[in-house]
Amino acid sequence: MERMKVVATFTQPQAKTSKAAFAETAMAPPPPPPKAKPPPNPPTDPISMTAEDIVTDPFLRSVLVKADEARRQCIALLALREQHPLGPDGARPPREVEIELAKQQQLLNSYLIQVRNLYRKAIFSTRQTKQATAEARHEIDTLHLQLQNLSYEQRHLRGEIEACEGYDHKYQQLPLISVEEFLEKFPDHRDDGEHALMIARIEHEHTERQALEERRQGLLKQKQGLIAENKKRKEDLANLDKDLEKFIDAAKPIMKIFEKEY
Length: 262
Fold this sequence. Notes:
Blueprint: H1 2-27, H2 51-54, H3 58-83, H4 95-166, H5 179-185, H6 194-259
């Protein structure tokens, strides 16, 4: 009996020690996951890229952190269950182990609830982002179409401007006086622009041509008068020739009388 008491007193502290160690190890929270930091030089190979390399949004990174915490809690819970499996006859583990398993399961459920809530928020945020992206894309497409229309209109207007600039205008073929000569005659136009100066030169040429046209019309009338007068004189001379022939014919008998010798 004394020997059994000694064994009992010797084994009880060991049992308490093992239970305390189990409680300490089981109640210890899982190690915190490392903070996700963007790598200074992210890999370019898609095979070697991780989730942290692909996901850059802070909110989505928080979802990954919570999911990693839930994964670690699952691993810790599985490890705890492997340490205390059921007996061959279906005997349940000690009550302290069941309590600790329940605590770890509740902690895992809390992690899963957080992950589910964050996932739901991520889905809503993704939908909002898709909607905002679609609206922005529609706006960009509209602006791009307007830009294409403006570019087409710009090319059309440039073509029209080049056609107008290259058009052989009739005013360029007018024998206008030089700019220097025009400014010498009309010094009031020295401050005019190129367009106003060209209009003034054309108006001056028009005025000069009107004066020359009036002079031409006067000379033409004078010419017609001279032609009519010359025609009348030619007719008078022609009539004079006829009268002279008649006079000569009428004077022949008289000349014959004077030619007789008496």
